[in-house]
Design a protein that fits this description.
Blueprint lengths: L7 H27 L2 E2 L12 E2 L32 H28 L3 H4 L6 H13 L12 H23 L3 H6 L1 H5 L4 H28 L2 H10 L7 H28 L1 H20 L27 H8 L6 E6 L5 E4 H6 L2 E9 L5 E10 H8 L7 E9 H4 L8 E7 H4 L4 E7 L2 E2 L9 E4 L11 E7 L12 H5 L9
Parallel strand pairs: 3-12
Antiparallel strand pairs: 1-2, 3-4, 5-6, 6-9, 7-8, 7-12, 9-10, 9-11
Length: 495
């Protein structure tokens, strides 16, 4: 390999890195649009954000929900744009898998070939050398080091590969409720989930800044020869114009992929949901579905404000129950069980009570800590004795989205599904208290689910029936929950 030769695997991973990073940026912006505010505190108290991408002013004296904070980003910048959080997450996780696989191949090949010598600093002299190179660039003088990176380039590339990229991965994992619940020490490394989210965003900004400067340097050093070197390898044996044409064709291919991905997502959202989940769901289940929550927050960490997501059920029947403190409420437990149950709220309160102070992680991005009291779902499982065929637990809500929401994403009563293993976790409960008071109506009275290793949308509020089933494909649109059916979320909610 000559000093100017770039091996094929390096050139291939360079292209794939561009593709997956650009998909990550656009899908990340779609995720950001669901809660376009950044914090350094996990309480996410309104007004404490350090950065916001919305001009919305929320009402002070009437009920508003976290959905009212959502923005609609254009498809020109977000994938797919227009309030499609579920699809944005599917694309983000797919691009994540592709980007990390590309990075793994790149790092392995970097160290099994002499290429690592060009990228990895071996002497502290690189620091003053990088400063000299930066001074030259700031004075509008190019730094030319034929056959190798100059010290500033070497330091920048090394930092992106071995510092910035691992930090982006680490902070992304810190936003997983499953990992945060199983390993609370991990998110403390970043001073909380919201600090990790903010750092993750700053990593995005750093990647974009690097890309702009990188492109500027390519142009400044002679775009035709540099493009030929990047695309075709040894510039001594290829024609510069050919390299430019091949490089531009590759860039055009990336643009076409983005256009097609956006168009298909908006035109055929169910197809995109199914195809992306087929690739990412097994990996997500393997990494984030197992393990139990061991959260033990203190009462001093309870958030001063806890957002509401979703409006209470409309109609006279629910209002009448609320006026009498739900004394007429009955919870039905049936399906594939030996002993169906009908339980009043008073009866549930006589069962052994489970209390826990845990962190709620909303799929939109905000979080909050609260104390919850209620009945262990494991106790209900023991009493109703599910049959061997039962694999999932379905929670049906009193909340009909067609009437409770001013702009519903779809029709019908809300429901959600978890697998039966999650139902038996110690911190999976049916809560009837919040912060030592009866569960408030906006937060799901009389009963709501708490599954502390999952995102908030799985924790169904206003629960009035529990059904044990073998499969959920015959319920609703067959995706495992109302938001999965109508907003294309994934049934796996550990991240």
């Amino acid at each position: 390999m000559t000093p100017l030769d770039f091996p094929l695997v390096l050139r291939a991973t360079h292209f794939l890195n561009l593709l997956f990073l650009s998909l990550l940026v656009r899908s990340g912006l779609e995720i950001m649009s669901a809660h376009p505010k950044l914090y350094w505190n996990d309480a996410c108290t309104p007004g404490t954000e350090w950065l916001r991408f919305t001009r919305k002013q929320l009402p002070e004296h009437e009920l508003w929900t976290s959905r009212d904070e959502e923005e609609s980003f254009s498809s020109w910048i977000a994938l797919p744009g227009h309030k499609n959080l579920g699809l944005g997450r599917h694309w983000h996780f797919l691009a994540d898998a592709g980007w990390m696989l590309t990075g793994l191949v790149y790092v392995i090949m970097l160290f099994v070939t002499p290429e690592w010598r060009r990228l990895v600093p071996t002497s502290w002299s690189i620091v003053p050398g990088a400063w000299q190179a930066l001074s030259s660039y700031l004075s509008l003088h190019l730094v030319v080091t034929p056959g190798q990176y100059n010290p500033l380039e070497q330091l920048a590339y090394f930092s992106v590969v071995f510092l910035l990229s691992p930090l982006a991965i680490a902070t992304g994992l810190a936003m997983s409720p499953s990992l945060a619940a199983r390993f609370p020490w991990y998110i403390r490394l970043f001073r909380g989930r919201q600090a990790a989210r903010s750092i993750h965003f700053l990593c995005l900004c750093a990647v974009l800044a690097f890309s702009v400067v990188h492109l500027a340097m390519v142009i400044a050093h002679g775009e035709i020869s540099e493009m030929g070197l990047i695309v075709l390898g040894d510039i001594q044996h290829v024609h510069g114009a050919l390299g430019l044409l091949v490089g531009l064709a590759g860039l055009a291919g990336v643009v076409v992929i983005h256009v097609v991905a956006t168009w298909y997502s908006l035109r055929y959202p169910r197809l995109v949901q199914r195809r992306t989940q087929a690739i990412t769901a097994p990996l997500r289940r393997a990494l984030f579905e197992h393990g139990r929550s061991v959260q033990q927050y203190s009462s001093t960490e309870i958030s001063p404000y806890f957002r509401v997501n979703g409006r209470p059920p409309a109609g006279d029947a629910y209002a009448a129950m609320a006026r009498t403190d739900f004394t007429s409420f009955v919870l039905d437990v049936n399906g594939l069980v030996e002993h169906p149950l009908r339980l009043t709220l008073a009866e549930l309160r006589r069962w052994p009570k489970r209390t826990q102070i845990t962190k709620h992680c909303c799929i939109q991005g905000w979080s909050a800590v609260a104390s919850w009291g209620g009945v262990s779902l494991g106790d209900i499982v023991q009493r109703c004795r599910p049959l061997a065929a039962a694999r999932y637990v379905v929670f049906y809500a009193l909340d009909d989205k067609s009437t409770s929401e001013p702009d519903p994403a779809g029709p019908g009563a809300f429901y959600g599904t978890i697998n039966i293993a999650l139902a038996s976790h110690p911190q999976t409960i049916l809560a009837y208290e919040m912060n030592d008071l009866p569960l408030p109506v906006p937060h799901g009275a009389p009963l709501r689910v708490r599954v502390e290793t999952q995102l908030g949308f799985t924790m169904v509020k206003y629960v009035h029936r529990i059904e044990f089933v073998h499969d959920y494909r015959h319920i609703g649109a067959g995706q495992g929950g109302w938001r999965e059916d109508h907003q294309y979320y994934s049934q796996e909610a550990g991240i």
